[in-house]
Amino acid sequence: MKIVYSEQHKLRDADTELYGGQLVKPFERPSRMEYILARNEAVSAGPIVEPKDFGMEPILRIHDEGYVSLLQTAWEEWVATGYKGEAMASTWPARRMAQKIPDHIEGKLGYYSMANETALTEGTWKAAYSSAQVALTGADLIKGGESSAFALCRPPGHHAAFDMYGGYCFLNNAAIAAQHLLDQGMNRIAIVDVDFHHGNGTQDIFYTRSDVLFASLHGDPRDAFPHFLGYADERGEGAGEGFNHNYPMKPGTGFAEWRSALNDAFGKVTDFQPDALIISLGVDTFENDPISFFKLKSDDFTTYGADIAALDLPTLFVMEGGYDIDEIGINTINVLQGFDAKRGTS
User: Fold this and answer.
1) Helix orientation angle between 65-80 and 124-143, rounded to the nearest 10 degrees
2) How far is 161 from 128, CA to CA, in rounded Å?
């Protein structure tokens, strides 16, 4: 399958992440893409294509205009205050506090963020914008008749809500792609998030809608980021009731249990009868991933790639998590190869 990729992701290269009480080099870093590209080159999984530029309109179909404006100007505002480090939130409109947008950049960052592990840096907006264009190009390939495509997005997107960033995510690439497909004439889209962490942003965006079915397999929020969303009783609201499905799982979950949840989610997808399927592809379910606690092995990714193909739907893979170890490349490409082998394509 075609792999959409842009070198613009390298503009997002933060120096700091707050992790375990320390400022460390972020786990989400440019070298993640190098592992995936190297593995693709080694096994020739698919040709690399450049993204098209679809402009701002598809982004603003999903995200709040004020929030997007903050992403565009945050670095300049931060520097203008005289602050020396990277732009990180330090205060939030918590329970029983005013939900008003401050004028000062420190307050604005807090208003529009969900967590403070993720710094905003000089190249963040350009990289996030490019990542969204990668996803849109993948969606365009699907709409144009390709049976599958892989949007090799970075930064990732599934934690980005309508008006919040965090979890390394700024624009919700999968959601933007889904809305684009709907705007281009499709009626129903299914999104299945196989990243270790709950796709809280995607859930937030589509929670009251019935034209997008969302299913997420993830670490139980009692034990895993983002902690405050992703419980099994979150089923959608209003018109969206019954179209949101969460599968939280405990530390040490292995492939048999995980795959059982995936098959249940796929049953929901089949009943929904979507025009296309989007897979939020995080490979941080791997047993040696540095910030996760599931126990999938590399061969398991090939297996579930074939499971996805068995749904026989136009399928867009959108890259999410999976962190800085060699197996991120092996596991990502294994999913694509498993899918292609089942479909009989390359």
Assistant:
1) 150
2) 14
Q: Looking at residue 192, what is its pLDDT?
A: 99
Give the pLDDT of residue 326. 85
What is the DSSP-derived secondary structure letter of residue 121? -
Interval 328-338: pLDDT, tens = 999 999 999 99
Report the half-sphere exposure of 325 (CA within 13 A, side-chain side): 16
Active site residues: 159
Q: Where are the domains of the chain?
A: 2-64+123-343
Fold observed for domain 2-64+123-343: Arginase; Chain A (3.40.800)
Question: If we measure between CA atoms, which residue out of 248, 143, 250 comes closest to residue 189?
Answer: 143
- Tally of CB atoms within 10 A around 228: 11
Instruction: Pick the closest to residue 305 from 342, 269, 262, 273 (CA basis).
Output: 342
Q: At what angle do helices 298-309 and 255-272 cross, to 10 degrees?
A: 20
pTM strictly above 0.90:
yes
Let me know the angle formed at the C-alpha of 308 by 283 and 182, rounded to the nearest 5 degrees: 95
Provide the angle, in degrees to the nearest 10, between the axes of the packed helices 31-43 and 327-343: 40
| The token pair that represents 23 in the structure block | 């400022």
Look at residue 246 and give its three-state secondary structure. Answer: strand
Instruction: Report yes or no: 262 and 217 within 8 Å, Cβ to Cβ.
Output: yes
Compute the distance between CA of residue 95 and CA of residue 220 in angstroms, rounded to an integer.
23
